[in-house]
């Protein structure tokens, strides 16, 4: 049965993600706004729903494993795409991220003002001047102060 042939009561029993799945099966790739507008029309929801709920709708699509966000910003069913395409896209993103991270690490290492080999000429003085006025009290002296 086509989604257009379903009555409103049947559609209301489905989640937005299930309706999206049906829309993508019938029409193919669509962007987030197009999909959500169709859902609003099918369910006869007020137009204010679009502005109020589009972010939640997008988030729900990104967390559902059935859907895949393509490079052109459209959604499609993951089942229509081969694993090679999906893995390739993830690997490219990982390589870009690694390049960014290694550049940041290099910049950070250059900006550090210590010698990584431990040959730094400055010595660390671990005597704490704040403790020079420290006084140790006996239990008897402690009871007298209270």
Q: How would you describe this protein?
A:
The chain is mainly α and 146 residues long. It has 2 domains: 3-80, Orthogonal Bundle (Arc Repressor Mutant, subunit A), CATH 1.10.10; 81-111. The chain contains 6 helices and 3 strands; from the N terminus they run ααβααββαα. The chain has helices spanning 8-12, 16-27, 32-43, 48-63, 83-111, 139-145, and strands at residues 30-31, 67-69, 74-77. Strands 1-3-2 form a 3-stranded antiparallel sheet. Helix 3 crosses helix 4 (48-63). The radius of gyration is 31 Å and the shape is elongated. The N and C termini lie far apart (86 Å).
CATH topology of the largest domain: Arc Repressor Mutant, subunit A
Mean pLDDT: 77
The fraction of residues in strands falls at: 5-15%
List the domain count as a whole number: 2
For the record, the CATH architecture of the largest domain stands as Orthogonal Bundle
Low-confidence stretches: none
Shape: elongated
SS field, number of helical segments: 6
Q: What is the straight-line distance between the termini?
A: 86 Å
State the name of the first-level CATH class of the largest domain.
Mainly Alpha
CATH superfamily of the largest domain: RNA polymerase, subunit delta, N-terminal domain
- Major sheet strand order: 1-3-2
Give the radius of gyration.
31 Å
Helical coverage, percent range? 55-70%
């Amino acid at each position: 049965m086509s989604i257009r042939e379903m009555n409103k009561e049947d559609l209301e029993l489905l989640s937005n993600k299930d309706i999206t799945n049906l829309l993508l099966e019938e029409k193919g790739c669509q962007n987030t706004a197009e999909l959500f507008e169709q859902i609003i029309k099918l369910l006869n929801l007020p137009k204010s729903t679009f502005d109020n709920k589009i972010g939640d709708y997008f988030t729900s699509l990104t967390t559902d494993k059935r859907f895949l966000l393509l490079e052109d910003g459209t959604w499609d069913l993951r089942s229509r795409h081969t694993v090679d395409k999906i893995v390739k896209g993830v690997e490219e993103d990982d390589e870009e991220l690694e390049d960014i991270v290694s550049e940041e690490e290099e910049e950070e290492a250059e900006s550090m003002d210590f010698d990584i080999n431990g040959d730094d000429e400055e010595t660390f003085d671990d005597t704490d001047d704040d403790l020079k006025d420290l006084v140790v009290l006996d239990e008897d002296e402690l009871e007298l102060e209270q």
